[in-house]
Amino acid sequence: MTPAKRLLDLTVALLLIAVLALPFGLLLLWLLWREGRPLFYVAERMKAPGQPFDLWKLRTMRTAAPGRNAGVSGGDKANRVTATGRLLRRTRLDEVPQLWNVLRGDMSFVGPRPPLREYVERFPEIYAQVLQSRPGITGLASLHFHRHEEWLLAQCRTPQETDAVYARRCVPRKARLDLIYQQRRTIWLDLALMIETAAKVLPGRRARH
What we know:
Layout: H1 3-34, E1 40-48, E2 51-58, H2 83-91, H3 98-104, E3 108-110, H4 117-122, H5 124-130, E4 136-138, H6 140-154, H7 159-184, H8 187-200
Parallel strand pairs: 3-4
Antiparallel strand pairs: 1-2
Helix pairs in contact: 1-3, 5-7, 6-7
């Protein structure tokens, strides 16, 4: 990560924290009343081969037995997403806690979405290239493939089917877009993708990466 990109991340993260601190605190109180504990979902992701970190999100699913949360979310987990969780996902409010990951340097605002360890280990050649960019909250693949990815995975009815579809149809297509970003990345491209992301989550626009 270049010093200019890191400076942009820190500046935007601190500005957003200042703006969102009060409304996000009120949101947490409302979630505590409506959904109960735990408020957060913390899961291992990879920022580079062999370098895991804890990704923070607001919880959007009903809690399940250990191991039931493993793997990519597809149609097999759809019945566990709460009504509140669907709203949080649609507006991307569930990802606000990732500002902490940006401050820590685990993530950038723009880059490939941080993958699960199992896919990094199964596709080492792909992720050795993709993860030369710091994982991001949003990015080229997030903006231009995620809706199709959601549609593909929503058709899956078992964890095995979800894994097969994700590995065969999503991993390589997202990687191509992530590598296009990597070849063309500039501060101006990052700003453009951040603005595009913000525009897509305004009221009346449906998007989620």
